[in-house]
Amino acid sequence: MPELPEVETVRRGLERLLVSRRLTELVVREAKSWQIDPVLLEADPAPAATAGAISDQAPPPTPDPGSISDPAPPSAPTAEPVPDAAPPSAPSSGSIPDSVPPSAPARPPAPPLSLDQAWLQARDRHLIGARVAGARRRAKVLILDLDNGNSLVCHLKMTGQMVVRGDEDWGAGHPTDSLLARLPDRSTRLEFGFEADWRLFFNDQRKFGWVRLMPTAAVEQLSFIASLGPEPFDPDGFAEFQRRIARHGRTSVKAALLDQSVVAGIGNIYADESLWAGRVHPARPVAQVSDAKLRQLWRAAAEVMRLSIELGGSTDRNYVDAEGKRGSYLGFANVFRREGQPCPRCGATIVKTRVAGRGTHLCPHCQRL
To answer: Is 254 a member of any domain?
Structure first.
C-alpha cells in the first residue's frame, strides 16, 4: 500500500491535468471498483442520457452509507507492499507513450458492465457534465471535488494506478505495463471521459481499490475520515496530536504513530525515520515521552514527509511518482533498511528489531530506551 507521500504525488498530477475539465463519460468495467452514495441514488430521478457506455441491467451491490472501502485483504501490509512481478522500465519524464513495448503481451480489457436505470440516472445527474473543481487528499484517500457539489473519493489500495491520456500523457501508481500500454487494458476498472478527448483510467490489478461518487459535504463525515488524526503537515495540529496520543500511555510510541486515529498518514518507513530524527526509541511507552520530545517528534515527522514528497516518495517497489519515476527518498533515509551501516549522526551501527509487530530500524546510541 502506498505511503502518504506517494498518494500526494498522485494528487498533484491529477490537480495539474484535470482541474477545470468537464466530465463527459463513465465506463465501469469492475463492479466493486465503483460506488455511488445511496443518497444520490435516492434523489429525484432525471431523464436518462443517451450517451455513455453503460446499459440498463442489475447494478453492483450498493455499499452501506457509512462504508467507503472493501474489507482489507488478510495479509495486506500498511506500508511495505508485497513485491509484484518485475515492472517495465518507468519513463524518465511526464510523457508516457501510448503503445505497449514490443515484448508486452496483448491485454484485452473487460467489457463495460450493465447497470440499471437508477444507476444510469445517478451517473447522468450527478457526474456527467460536472467539472473537476479541485484535487485534495485526506491521509491516503484522494478526493476530486466537482463543481456540482459532489466528489469522487478514491483509494488506490495496493496496486491502483491513475493514468491520464490527452494532449499530455501521464501516469502514477503501481508500476506495471499499464502505465505504458494502450488503454483500456485488462487491469482497467473505471474509465472517465473528459472534454477535448482527455481520459482518466483507474487501473487496479488486485481489485482492492475503489472510487465512490458522493456529496462533497458528506466526505468529512465518513466514519473512516472522521476518525483520522491530524496530519504532520498541519501547523496547528500538534495540540490535537498531543491530546490523542496521551490516551495511549502504555503503548509504544511507534505503535501510537502508526495508529491513524492518532496521526494520519504515517506508515512504517516514516515512523522509523521520524523517531530517529527525534532521538526517541520506538519501543518507549508514550507516557515516558516528554511533551518537548513529542513536539520534536511532530516537527521531525513533518520534515521527513516533506522531504519524501520532494523526492517523489519512498515506496521503491510498488509505486512511482507523478512523473513516472520511482520515489528516491529511500536513497536518503537515515535508518530505514540501513541495518549494519553506521548511523549518519553518531557512527554507531544501525540495528533492525521488531516493534508494534513491524520491522523497525534504529540507532541504539541515539535512541536509548
So the answer is: yes
